[in-house]
Design goal:
heterodimer; A: 306 residues; alpha/beta; TIM Barrel; Alpha-Beta Plaits; 2 domains; nine-stranded mixed sheet; two-stranded antiparallel sheet; 24% strand; globular; B: 788 residues; five-stranded mixed sheet; four-stranded parallel sheet; 17 strands; 52% helix; 9% strand
């Protein structure tokens, strides 16, 4: 690369051969930090903006190396499992370094634009062959606007198409400023009404709705993604509401319906966070098929699992 | 498939393979009757072939459209006592072993005891080979450094071009006559040998024509007795066809298929050639007949499909000749590895895809037989439709067709000195081996165990499994100050074993040339007629010997761990490593985890590991490539394992990639099982860092769950992967689209399945990274999919 961009971002995962985050074969970059706190979030390690320690119990062989390596004595390893005293942890990462099985993980690497571009460019041939590119996901990628902006510029310079996967909970000026640089926006719709939205996600949906409207007005190609959470948004009213919003959007390309799963729970535990223990019970409504039917009646392409 | 095909398929699939002593008896009778006669080996072999084709049992099964079998009935295989004569104990093993059993009845055993074994004892090629091998060769062979293809089966690994369809055997007989007339007895001291060779080939041509005529007569007889007028007419047609082909060039689609099949039966009856023989570019060969008949209206699409299906079933009717000992372990299968290629380029370099390409794929998909194998020889010029059709068939999970890059094959072959047109008319046969179809003797001579060479190096020439010194002394491993010193020792050890292997090969090649000429196969491969030389004596236009490297991923990762942990990070010492390997990681699980999880591993697009792979590739390449074989040709390398990575693994101790003693090695050029964790694009990048174009074939396996191919978009993206891999000069790729059964195993042994990608909810992920509940949920989904 000709220029050196020293802007750094906090990245918690990079997925190559991402095939569900936009067209073609893509590399998805997960930017850390999100202001919402949806209890069903399947990337709970993306919520905190600061780097975290994640312990994957399923990979742990309980060798105790981490406990011995910890200068703060913050880790206790016994045959039942591992306990981390997060208060004492200074994030020195000695445990991550020594862990032989890779169970102890550091989520949230600082990467510069150049470093990240090198990873992205590795799969350029695959993007070109398939019409793919790079997707910035999260977390909420707009929470690192300077970094995102630099990445979008650099991708454009390199001729790589971009997508951003966002909650749209972003200050509108920032959102509108970056939109023209993005080829495709993937956005979430979770709850229709402000109060439940506030209750479950921690924030109002007013800003989100405004941004979605602005985005479509600006002519940005988009994909709507609906995480279908049993008992939360799979009732008839939500189904109708989602379909209605989709039908009014001019530049909407597809709708992805994401059925609920609970694989996030191991990660929540591994981050030392309290599981809300919320049980999401099916409301008995066949929301999936109703939604598919309604959307297809409007000639909107639907992908389940998106 | 229609009723007839369903019935023939059922018979082929459900009949238990059986050993028939008939060929052995005929061969023994013939050899006894010619004992002491002044016959050159080639004349003796030609007359033996004639005797076989005259006397072997012929039958036409109910409803058959294509006729001729290697054995007396479908799923019956003869034996080849002149190459390797089974003992009574071996026949018992074959009869009773749990997997891949062959029925051997008491009568057969009696015949073997009374006639076959007493005659052939001490006279077989196998015994001759082992008698002639040096102590060094035997030591390396028994330690599992390499295998030897030719100790139980004759050289083969070749495929046909379009000669038999264009000239017929009468055309070849004319060429033989022409060459006989040109012989120069005045100044050419080889003229007499050439005459014998040409006479031998002529006898074989006559023998196969006569064999076809026997079928013609049988069909006529059966027609006369047939009650069903429809079947009567079919039998009459079969009689006419067998009267015409393979003597004359075929005139119809049916005749073309029957002509090929007689030739195929001839080759696999003459000798037990490796990989039988392959039809090669069957869509190209058949298309002229298909097109002519379709436009004339004399062949419907359904008829063409039925006839082609009948040919496919014929392949499946031929279980591989049963092997014994090491060779049985490396290839415990009924499969005889005949491969049909579709797609690719025309001789003048254009897209060769035609309607028969799709017809072949349809039949492959409908019949789902173990053999023949099919591959798509994908060119940049071939349409995406061909690629998509191939992937749709893969979706059902049986790993076919496989995909080869035509551009890679053409560059490999031209790089070896073949003409552009010969290269374009070539392709791959066997597993993944490139060859100039109809013009090349390209011989796989044996697998070569790369990780075992490292093990021997670490033990200064001694095999720790047996305590025997089998290699050269390259220094005490603890004395190596740097990684380069260790690597140099490995290089020396490897070159030594290649020397030993090639010396053995040279002797074996001469044994086949001298004692076991193949005049019938010679007839079919250009330029054996023109040169008056046998296929085994360098008569073919091109003559290539391959040695196939195995365990590239394992040896790369083993080296990577040594470099990273001993020489760079100094996590452990060489002394400790040797002790840990000796202890097979017992009590050192922590270190094993470190090797697996905290070491640069091949297959992740990580240059730290991939550069080691390239280095090993170059070492192996340099040790083998360019050596001269006994047929005037050259050695090249291949990287493929068939199933030998299981056998090689079983005799290789613990390796420093975290692999325990006895476990399988990595296969082909694929990364170590479960160790590629950055997805398929990273794998393809890693693998394409080696120079495939300087090999004669590499094998790459990739594993996907059915969900990834469930819709158009998923299929298109896997198509993109293939196209991109081939742009990076990859040679071959094939897919395992896995089932719930595999996922269960993945749960039980996650370390082996770390690279398994599954579709989760809104995304895909590594199966082993999911919690148990979700895994179970996905398993349930997959089974549901299977039921649909």
């Amino acid at each position: 690369m000709n220029t050196t961009d020293i802007t750094t971002g906090t990245i918690f995962n990079i997925k190559r051969y991402a095939i569900h985050d936009g067209p073609g074969i893509r590399t998805t970059i997960f930017l850390k930090g999100c202001l919402m706190a949806c209890p069903w979030c399947h990337n709970p390690e993306g919520i905190e903006s600061e780097p975290e320690l994640l312990h994957r119990a399923s990979l742990c062989i309980l060798c105790g190396d981490c406990a011995r390596a910890c200068p703060e004595d913050a880790i206790q390893a016994d045959p039942q499992g591992l306990k981390i005293d997060r208060e004492r942890c200074t994030m020195c990462l000695k445990c991550v370094e020594i862990c032989p099985s890779g169970a102890m993980q550091h989520v949230g690497n600082k990467m510069s634009v150049d470093e990240l571009m090198q990873v992205i460019l590795r799969d350029r041939m695959f993007y070109e062959e398939s019409g793919g590119g790079v997707t910035f996901s999260g977390g909420e990628p707009f929470l690192q606007p300077k970094f995102l902006n630099s990445m979008l510029d650099e991708c454009k310079k390199q001729g790589i198409r971009t997508a951003v996967d966002t909650s749209c909970f972003v200050e509108t000026p920032i959102f509108l400023q970056l939109l023209p640089k993005i080829d495709l926006v993937l956005f979430d719709l979770k709850l229709l009404d402000e109060k439940p939205h506030q209750r479950y996600t921690g924030v109002s949906n007013k800003l989100i709705n405004d941004n979605i409207t602005e985005m479509d007005r600006a002519g940005t190609m988009s994909i709507m993604r609906i995480p279908l959470i049993p008992g939360i948004n799979d009732d008839k009213r939500h189904v109708l509401g989602f379909a209605r919003i989709a039908a009014t959007m001019i530049f909407l390309e597809e709708v992805h319906i994401l059925p609920y799963h609970d694989m996030y729970r191991e990660k929540v535990a591994g981050l030392g966070k309290l599981d809300t223990k919320l049980e999401f019970k099916n409301s008995g409504n066949d929301a999936l098929n109703q939604l598919i039917e309604l959307l297809e009646a409007e000639d909107i392409k639907v992908v389940v699992g998106g | 498939m229609n009723k007839r095909i369903a019935a023939l398929r059922k018979q082929s699939v459900e009949t238990q393979p059986t050993i028939s002593p008939q060929r052995a008896v005929l061969m023994t009778q013939f050899y006894k009757s010619t004992e002491g006669k002044l016959l050159s080996p080639v004349m003796r072999r030609a007359l033996a072939f004639q005797y076989l084709m005259e006397n072997k049992t012929i039958r036409i099964e109910d409803g058959e459209l294509i006729v001729g079998e290697r054995g007396s009935r479908p799923r019956v295989t003869p034996t080849y006592p002149e190459i390797c004569c089974h003992t009574l104990e071996e026949l018992d093993v074959l009869n009773s072993r749990e997997k891949v059993a062959y029925t051997v009845d008491d009568k057969t055993k009696e015949i073997y005891e009374d006639m076959i074994i007493p005659y052939w004892y001490g006279k077989t090629i196998r015994e001759k080979i082992f008698d002639e091998m040096t102590g060094q060769w035997l030591a390396a062979y028994h330690a599992g450094i390499f295998t030897e293809f030719m100790e139980q089966r004759a050289p083969g690994h070749t495929a046909l071009d379009d000669t038999i369809y264009k000239k017929g055997l009468l055309g070849l007989l004319q060429e033989i006559q022409h060459e006989l007339e040109q012989l120069d007895y005045l100044t050419d001291r080889t003229a007499y040998e050439k005459r014998d060779q040409l006479h031998g080939m002529a006898i074989c041509a006559g023998a196969i024509i006569h064999y076809a005529e026997r079928y013609s007569k049988l069909a006529t007889q059966m027609a006369q007795q047939a009650d069903d007028p429809f079947r009567r007419q079919e039998l009459e047609t079969i009689a006419e066809i067998c009267q015409r082909v393979p003597a004359n060039p075929p005139q119809s689609f049916w005749e073309a298929l029957q002509a090929y099949w007689f030739i195929h039966v001839g080759v696999i009856t003459e000798l037990n050639t490796w990989d039988a023989i392959s039809p090669g570019r069957l869509d190209q060969h058949l298309f002229p007949f298909y097109q002519a008949e379709r436009s004339a209206g004399s062949l419907s699409g359904e008829q063409a499909k039925e006839l082609l299906s009948a040919l496919f079933i014929k392949f499946n009717n031929q279980p591989a000749p049963p092997k014994v000992g090491v060779t049985a372990q490396e290839s415990g299968t009924y499969n005889d590895f005949a491969l049909i290629s579709v797609g690719g380029l025309t001789p003048d370099g254009n897209d060769a895809t035609n309607p028969v390409s799709y017809l072949i794929l349809d039949v492959l998909n409908e019949l789902k037989l173990v053999q023949p194998h099919c591959c798509i020889q994908l060119s940049q010029q071939n349409p995406d439709r061909l690629l998509k059709r191939g992937l749709e068939i893969n979706k059902s999970g049986f790993g076919q067709p496989s995909f080869f890059s035509t551009e890679a094959i053409v560059q490999e072959l031209t790089g070896q000195g073949k003409s552009m047109v010969d290269a374009r008319c070539g392709g791959t046969s066997g597993c993944v081996e490139s060859g100039a179809f109809g013009k090349e003797n390209y011989n796989l001579t044996g697998y070569f165990n790369l990780p075992k060479v490292l093990e021997i190096t670490l033990n200064n020439g001694t095999d720790p499994r047996t305590g025997k010194r089998i290699g050269i002394e390259t220094g005490d491993a603890e004395s190596f100050k740097t990684f380069d010193e260790l690597y140099l020792a490995f290089e020396k050890q490897l070159t030594y074993f290649i020397d030993v292997k090639v010396q053995g090969n040279n002797i074996i090649e001469r044994i086949y040339e001298t004692f076991m000429p193949a005049p019938f196969l010679s007839l079919l491969i250009q330029d054996c007629i023109r040169s008056g030389k046998d296929y085994h004596a360098g008569g073919a236009r091109y003559n290539t010997s391959y040695i196939q490297g195995v365990g590239l991923g394992t040896v790369t990762d083993a080296f990577s761990a040594i470099r990273f942990h001993i020489f760079e990070k100094q996590t452990i010492t060489m002394k400790e490593l040797l002790m840990i390997l000796h202890e097979n990681y017992e009590g050192y699980e922590r270190i094993r985890q470190l090797f697996m999880n905290k070491t640069p591993r091949y297959g992740n697009d990580d240059d730290a590991a991939d550069n080691i792979m390239r280095h090993i590739f170059e070492t192996f390449f340099t040790a083998v490539d360019g050596r001269k074989n006994m047929k005037g040709g050259t050695y090249h390398i291949n990287l493929l394992p068939t199933t030998v990575h299981v056998y090689f693994g079983s005799i290789t101790g613990a390796t420093s990639d975290g692999r325990k003693a006895g476990q399988v090695l990595s296969e082909g050029v694929s990364p170590v099982q479960g160790m590629d964790r950055n997805g398929p694009t990273a794998v393809l990048h890693s693998v394409s860092k080696m120079d495939h174009l300087r090999t004669g074939g590499t094998l790459l396996n990739q594993k996907f769950t059915p969900q990834l191919l469930a819709n158009e978009s998923g299929i298109a993206k896997i198509g993109n992967l293939i196209r991109t891999y081939f742009k990076m000069n990859g040679h071959h790729i094939q897919f395992n689209v896995v089932t719930a059964d595999t996922l269960h195993k993945a749960q039980a042994e996650p370390d082996k399945y770390r690279d398994l990608i599954v579709r989760v909810a809104g995304y895909s992920d590594y199966f082993c990274n999911l919690n148990a509940d979700l895994q179970n949920e996905i398993i349930a989904r997959t089974e549901h999919g299977d039921l649909e």
